[in-house]
């Protein structure tokens, strides 16, 4: 059995597109990245049945490609294929008009959503996140995810699309689903608490030791 590549493949592909889009905007690579991201956004707006080539485009884009075990065999996309498709179309949505990176390995999706709550004046972030977590089918979950990604884009908040794709795959397996949702709930809480703790620490007066100058 070959080693699964979904996590690295999606993360590496997102990094490459992001680098070309942001750092090589005036080059052929930059123009190609803009075209690819626009096509991904268009695919996201249609169903697989309406755009039968959508999955093919994503699979050809992935570098490295998915392992043989992750590829589908029948008429429906495999869990890994669907996770890669949803992650990269969401990434394309996130990258629209971006001036800063939206993919980073330093922050998880749920933690970024928690951070979004601290930056937003709206009280709808937590209900949106909860609705996404409680969704019982893929279509509903992705609909809520697209709403959250739009809000993350508005606040220029980035997250790790590689680990996000791996989690999207795990959510398709009942035995793994609860573990992912538990971790997302924890990460969301950490995302809301850490900025507050940091601000509190910054607000505390500096204590100078009476022996500092002795």
From TrEMBL:
InterPro entries: CRISPR-assoc_prot_Cse2 (IPR013382), Cse2_sf (IPR038287). Gene3D superfamilies: CRISPR-associated protein Cse2 (1.10.520.40). This is Type I-E CRISPR-associated protein Cse2/CasB. It comes from Corynebacterium lujinxingii.
